[in-house]
Amino acid sequence: MHSDCIVIEGSNMAECHPVAFRWVMQAKLAGATVIHVDPRFTRTSAMADIHAPLRAGTDIAFLGGLIHHVIEHEKYFKEYVVHYTNAATLVRDDFKDTEELEGVFSGLHGYDGDPLNGFVGQYDTASWQYVSGDTGTQRAGDGAMTGQVSQNPAKRGDMAGKGPEVGANPPPQGPPFDGMVRAMKKPPPPRDETLQDPRCVFQIVKRHFSRYTPEMVERVTGCPKDVFLKVAEAITRNSNPERTTAFCYAVGWTQHTYGPQLIGTCAMLQLLLGNIGRPGGGILALRGHATIQGSTDIPTLYHSIHGYMPALSTLKQHETLADYLKTETLPASYWSNTPKFFVSYLKSMYGAAATVENDFGYGWHPRIAGDHSHLPMTIAMMEGRVKGMFAMGQNPAVGAQNARLQRKALAKLEWLVVKDNFETETAAFWRTSPEVQNGELKTEEIQTEVFLFPSAQVGEMDGSFTNTQRLVQWHAKAADPPGDCRSDLWFTVHLGKRLKAHYAASTLPRDQGIKHLVWDFDADHPEPGSRIPDEPDARKVLREVNGYRSADGRHLTSAAELKDDGSTTCASWIYCGIYPEPGKNLAESRVPDAPEGPQTHLGWAFAWPSNRRTLYNRASARPDGKPWSERKKYVWWDGKRWTGHDVPDFPLTKAPDAPAKPDAIGLDAHAGTDPFILKVDGKGWLFAPTGLVDGPLPTHYEPVESPVQNPLYKQQTSPVLKMWRRDDNVIASQDPRYPHVLTTYRLTEHHLSGVMSRWLPWLAELQPELFVELSPELAGAHGIDNLDLVRIATPRGAITAKALVTRRMRPLQIDGKTVHQVGLPWHWGYQGLVTGEVVNNLSALVGDPNVSIHEGKAFVCNVEKA
Amino acid sequence: MGISRRDFFRVSTGTALGGLVGLGVNLAPATARAEALRIKDTKAHPSVCPYCAVGCGTVVHAANNQVVHVEGDVRSPVNQGNLCPKGAAIYQLHVNPNRLTKVLRRAPGATQWEEWDLERAMDRVAELTRKTRDETFVERDPKGKTLNHSLGIFSLGGATMDNEWNHVQQKLMRGLGVVAIENQARI
Amino acid sequence: MAEPMGFFTDTTVCIGCKACEVACKSWNQISSTNGGQNVLSGDSYDNTRKLDGEHWRHVKFIEQFSEDRVSESRWLMMSDVCKHCVQAGCLEVCPTGAIIRTEFDTVVIQQDACIGCRACLPACPFGVIDINPVTHTAQKCTLCYDRMQVGMTPACAQACPTASIQFGPLVQLRKKAEDRVAQLHSQGKEEAYIYGDEAILGGLNSFYLLVDNPEVYGLPVAPKLPSRNLWRSSFAAAFGAAVLGLWGLVSLRTRKRGAKAEGPSSGDGGGDGGKKGAAP
User: Fold this and answer.
1) Contacts of C152 in chain B (CB under 8 A)
2) Inter-chain contact B163–A291, Cβ cutoff 8 Å?
C-alpha cells in the first residue's frame, strides 16, 4: 500500500490472492503504477497499467535485463548499494563466471552420490568465495530451504580448506560454547568501496549481466522491447530515497529447476534499487496455504529442524554435538547464537533426559542421509522402499508431479493413512483412480491397507496459522466437530501416546529417543460442554514452541533469554516471545492500529521474530541513521536509540557510527551500518558465495523441457538440476512432437487439488470443469473450436479438457520463431462434486538442486482435437 | 461484533409502496418486517481463513455447538472484512452433507470401505507405525556414521494444518526416527 | 424513513473474483446450479451466466482483444445485481404485495408472501428476478435487508476485496462516483461514465461506473417499465390480489411441505450437495 510501483511477476495475484491484491488496488488508486509480467493475460493483467507478456520460464532473462538496464544507465541507488550490500567485497581470483565458461561457473564436475538424490552434476564452490574471511561456507544456507547444499559428500573435504578447519585446531567445547564460536571467527573480507576493482562483486555482476540487453530479453522471453523498456523506466523512476518499488511473486517463480536463483535475481535487483528493508519496497512471496509459512518455520520438512537450523545429516560434519555446532554456527551475525538455539531445541525434544553429560540427547536424534523430499520419496515408494505413509491434509494423487507415477506408487505401500474432510483422490486411489478404471491397477491386487480419518475444520479447533508475512494468528474453537471428526492435533498427540506406551519399557539404544520424547500436551481440564474430553491443549504445544525455563517452567519472553547449557527449553527460537506468560498468547491479540496510527498493527497477532513486521528495517534509514526521506520514514536513530513505526531489526542502542569489533562474535562483529544481521558480513548479497548449489549468480537456463535452444549460452539447462530418468518419467526437449510451452496454474474459484473447493457447491458451480486455454491462432491451426474436447499430450501421458479459446493467450516470437503457450488450471480430479482429469498426469519429476522443487510452470506439450 | 440485542429488535415498519396498500387491502404478510438475523443468539469466535496464506481474519458464529455462519473480520488489518470466494465459502467446509464423519478403513485387497471405530483405528495405525519403524530402522551407515533413522515411513502434509500440529507431527516423527517429512512448501 | 441506501459498483476495479456471489449465497443460504454440478459455459470465466433465483449477484466477463493484442486489450468485469429502481416495475406488478419498498428505499421480495406467480419476472427490464428452484418463490437481491436493519454492511460489499462494490447512503455514493469519474477522466480515461442516474427509471439505487456502452455489459440503454397491458387497474388489482393472496397462503404451505419432502430444507446452502447422491 505504501509502494509507488508494484511489479507482480510469477504470480497471478488478483486471482490467487485476491484479498492481498486489495492493497495493490489501494496503492493504484493512490497513484502507484502496477505492472504484471506473465505468460497469460489474467485477471491481474486486467488491473495492471502494463502487462508484459513473456514465455513461461524466462523470468531470469527478464529480470537480468532489468539489472543490466539499472547498471548500464547508472540507475542504481549508489549510497545504499555501497553501504548495505556486498557490492564492494572482493571475490577470489580463480572464480570464473558464465561469461568465461559458456554458461557455467567454475567448479563444475560430475555427481557421484546416491542416484536417488537426482543430481545431474555438482559444483565445488571453493572458487566462489570472498578473497578471504568468513562467508559461512560450512553452513548450509542462511535460512532458506537449502538443506541439500552439502549432499555432495565428496566435496566436503575440499571446502573445509576455506572455511574454519574442523578439527584442525580443536577449539574449547562447551557449554558454554562462546569460546568455541570465538575461535572460529575470521577477519572480514577486503572491500573496494569505489566499486572499481575488477574482482569486486559489483564489477562481476556488471559483466555477468552485460549480455542481457533489451534485444536479448525480447529474443529469449518474447516480451516486445518497447514493453520491457516501459517496465524498466517505471521501476527506476520509482526507486530512490523518496520512492519505493515492490515485487510480488508466487509459485510462478519457485516451480522451476532454477527457482531459488529466480528469486535471487529479484533480490539483487531490489538491493541495487535500494528497495529492501524500506516501506513499500521488498519482495513479497505470496504463499498458497494457510500455514505454509508456519510449516516451514516449524518444519514438517526433512531438511531442517526448528527455526531454519539444518537437519542433522550424515553428509556433513554432524557426528557429535560439538561437530554440529562447529559446522552450523556463523560466528559473525545473529547466527552466532546457534548453540543456544540448538541446545534449547534438544531440551524441547528430550526434556530432563537431555543433559550436559549426554550432549543433550544429541545421539538419539535421527540424521538425514540424502534428499528425502517428495520427488525422490515418490521414486523410493515406487521401488517399494517406503512401506507406510501419512497423507495429512495433502492430496498427492492430484497435486504431485507425474501424478500417475505417484498413484501407482501409493499402490506399493503396505499402509496409507489419510486425514481429510472428504474422500480425497489419494484416499480413493485404489477404488476410483484412472489406473483402476483403465485396468493398469486391479483393486483386488492392491495390498495397501488404507485409513481415512475425518478431520475437524478450522472453526472446530484451537490453533494458529502463520501467514505469508510471518504473522502468527490464532483461531478459536467455535463448535465441536461432528461424529468422529477430530482435530489433527488430537490424531498425532494420541498416536504419540500410543507409541510412547509401546516403547516405555524399552532399553534398546534405538528406542531412547522416542522413550524420552517429551509428550505432555493433555488438557488440564476437558473443555466444558464438549463431546471430546481428550482434546489436547493447543496452548501447551505453543508453550513448548515458545519456550520456558527448564527449572521452573516460567515462559520465555524473547530469544535473548536462551542459554546453551540446558537451562532453557525452546523448540523454536524464532517463535520465542509469542507466548511470554500464561494467559498471554500474542497470536490471539486482536488490537489493530487506529486509522491515524502507523498502520504496522503491532497489537494484531504476532509476527516472528520479536513481533517485527519488516525485516532488515535498519536499511530504511541512511547510513547515518536518518530516514532516507520524510516520505519513506520507517525506523531511524534518534541520537540515543533506534526507534520508529516497527520493532527495529537491529541492536537498539548500537549507534550508526559504531565500528565493527574485529575480535567480537555475533552482532558486535558488524558495524552500525550493517543492516543484514543474519548475514556473516551484515550485507545484502548481490553475489552469493554460499547457500546455493547452482551458482553464486543467477543465469538464464531453459526449463528442462523447452521447445527453444537457449539463446544466451551454449549451456541449455541448469548443469546441476535434479532429474530422475525412468520409463515412466520420460523427458523431451526441443522435440518436434511436443512443440508448445505448457504452463499450469490455479484459479480464484478453487483451491489446489480441489479438496477444499470441488466438494463445496458454492465454489463448484463457479468453475465446474477442467479447461485448456488456447489462443485462437493455435486453436485454429488444429481446427479446435471453443468448448471442443482437446487432447493434451506430454511424454508422461495425455488428458482431455474442454477448449477455452481466448485472445488472452498469445503466440510469442522467440528467437525468430513462433512459440505457442498452452494453459491448464490443475484443480480437478476423480472425486468430488465436480470432477475432471488430473493435469499433473502430464508433469514430470524434475527438480531444482537447492530445494528439490519441481518444474510445474514450464514444460512442453502437443494439442489436438479429441 | 458489537451488535446489541436492541438493534435486532429495532423493528422497522417501513413503508410498503405496493399498489395495494393504498386501497386498504390487508395482506398480512406484505408488511415490511425485520427478518430474523441468522447470527442472532450466536457467539462470535475470532478465526482465520484456512485457504491461502494471506491470513484473512474471520469470525465464526456458532450456537449450540454448531457453526451457523462465517464471514470476514472487519477489524482485521489484513482484510478488513473482505474475503475471496473461497473464504466466503468456509461455512460449507463445516456444514456439508458430503463431509466424512466416520473413520473408513480399507483392508488389503478389499473393494469396499468399511467403517471403523475411532479408537480401534488409532490402535491399528499405532501398531503399523511401530512395526514398520522397527523393521526399517537403521542405526549406522556402512561407514559407521550415526543414522538412527527409518526411511520406511513417509509423512506428507502440514501447510494446511495448524502450527501446533506441525510441531507435534515433526516431533513425533523425529522422535521415532522418521526423517522423510514433507509438506506443500515444496510445491 | 431511514436514509436511502444502495450500491455503487465501480467496474474498473472489479477483479472478477466472485467473492460477492459466494458471500451473498453464504449469508442468504442460497443453493447452487444443479447442486454445484454445473457445466462449463465457454464464455470467458462466467459459468453462472445470469442473475436468477439462486444467483443474486453475478459477475460478467467481457474480453476485448484485437488480433495484435496491442490496439485493444481489455478484460472487463462487472458484478451485477438488482438495481433497486426508484420506479420498480416488479413492485408495481406484484399481485400480493410481496414486493415492498423498504425504509432504505430498497426493493425486497418478502419470501413468506411470494406465491411464485412469476408476474414480476417480465416486469423487470434488467432480467434480475427468477424463481428459486428450491423454494419456488421469486428471488433476488434484498440488499441484505436483515443486515442493514442492524447496521451491518451487505455481505457482498463487505466481502469485495477491491471495493468495487461500495455500499452506503446514496447521497454519499453518488458523490464518490462523481469523484471517481472525474479522476478517471483526468487520467485520460474519457470513456468512464455512470450508468443509473435519474435518467434511468428515476434513478437506480444500485448503479455502476462503466467504461463501454451499456449493451456491452448486457444492460439496456434505455430500460422501460412494463408495458401498459401488464398494469392492472386499481380495481382488478385489488380484487385479484385478494384472491391471489388467499391462494398464495395456501400454496405457501404446500410448497413448504414439498420442500421438506425433497430432502434439503429450502435455503440450506449446505443442503444442495445432498443432490449429489442422486446424480450419476
Assistant:
1) 3
2) yes
